[in-house]
């Protein structure tokens, strides 16, 4: 079976053009919560823009979400509101169980000041491919 993927930024653009952005905001048109994630490690801020976001479940019943950039690191994984992990390089991943600041939507997960050990994750990942 052949699937096509769409980047989170392209998906956000399509939603905005269709008038279905899903949120009212005072942000400028150039800024969108669906364009990527930021991980603040205390020493630096890493911008993560997943090119492929795999989801399990179905729209409205999202169970797992995994975001990859060009099928490589960084990797962001969430299992509902039970577990979140970010792996950015060769070292140990930033992770936590029962994280705060995680909002699971129908087709996306938003992180709002989600603490992963010594790092903080912010932003939204929107599903580009569904499995299961």
Q: Could you characterize what this model shows?
A:
This protein is 8% helix and 48% strand. It has one helix at 8-17; strands at 37-40, 45-48, 52-58, 61-69, 72-79, 83-87, 94-97, 102-104, 108-116, 119-126, 129-131. The strands form two sheets. A six-stranded mixed beta sheet has the order 7-6-5-4-3-11, with no helix packed on it. It has a five-stranded antiparallel beta sheet with strand order 2-1-10-9-8, with no helix packed on it. The longest helix has 10 residues, at 8-17. The model is unreliable at 1-31 (pLDDT under 50).
Core attributes:
48% strand; globular; 11 strands
Poorly predicted runs of 5 or more residues: 1-31
* Oligomeric organization of the protein chains: single chain
Radius of gyration using CA atoms only: 14 Å
The major beta sheet can be summarized as: 6 strands, mixed
Number of DSSP strands? 11
Mean pLDDT: 80
Question: How far from one another are the termini?
Answer: 14 Å
Number of helices: 1
Q: What is the spatial order of strands in the main beta sheet?
A: 7-6-5-4-3-11
Considering DSSP H and I runs of 4 or more, what fraction of the residues is helical? under 10%
| Amount of beta strand | over 45%
Structural class: mainly beta
- The rough form would be described as globular
Element string (H = helix, E = strand): HEEEEEEEEEEE
